[in-house]
Q: What sequence folds into this?
């Protein structure tokens, strides 16, 4: 895999974004696959597998040792599947049979307490001329307020977040009801996103 000078246009250094490719896996166009050169396994999330309509492709039981994710959390492999993977565009293509480990991952914060910043750290490329924005505090209905308090307490106990007294940027949380009736708490990063360079290859989820 090579890169030309055109690929480096609009790239802000230091460049720490993940490498994303869109191969054809088992006759399915997969739009976003994250490439991790340090990974010891090819992971296929079960929810993605279910969307691929792999008629006739059989999952094989797996009794191998578990995979250890960030923070040392073990993820037990349940099944594997071998699929053809096509990369590139004509006339420059390559196809190979790849063994995937099918996993079901739902990791709440309490499963990864106190994640060391040396393991994973996110940095926002804020434009130097951008002025910090402190959003005005929003009020919520009683039901949503209880959801927010419970979620914040859970994140504090897991040491995923910490309290600060004098923030430069301040964003409100947003509570959204999911299709299963449960609530999801998000953060309104609208102002911060406006102050950062546009990502031409956004990553809403990892296939």
A:
């Amino acid at each position: 895999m090579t890169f030309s000078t055109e690929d480096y246009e609009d790239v802000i250094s230091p460049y720490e974004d993940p490498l994303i490719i869109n191969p054809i896996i088992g006759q399915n166009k997969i739009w976003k696959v994250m490439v991790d050169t340090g990974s010891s396994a090819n992971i296929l999330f079960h929810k993605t597998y279910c969307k691929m309509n792999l008629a006739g492709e059989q999952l094989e039981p797996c009794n191998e040792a578990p995979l250890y994710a960030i923070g040392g959390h073990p993820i037990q492999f349940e099944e594997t599947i071998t699929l053809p993977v096509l990369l590139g565009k004509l006339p420059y293509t390559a196809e190979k049979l790849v063994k995937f480990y099918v996993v079901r991952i739902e990791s709440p914060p309490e499963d990864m307490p106190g994640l060391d910043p040396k393991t994973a750290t996110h940095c926002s490329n804020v434009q130097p001329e951008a002025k910090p924005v402190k959003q005005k505090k929003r009020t919520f209905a009683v039901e949503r307020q209880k959801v927010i308090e419970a979620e914040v307490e859970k994140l504090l106990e897991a040491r995923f977040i910490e309290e600060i007294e004098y923030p430069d940027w301040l964003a409100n949380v947003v509570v959204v009801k999911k299709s299963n009736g449960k609530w999801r708490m998000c953060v309104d990063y609208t102002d911060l996103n406006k102050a950062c360079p546009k990502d031409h290859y956004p990553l809403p989820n990892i296939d």
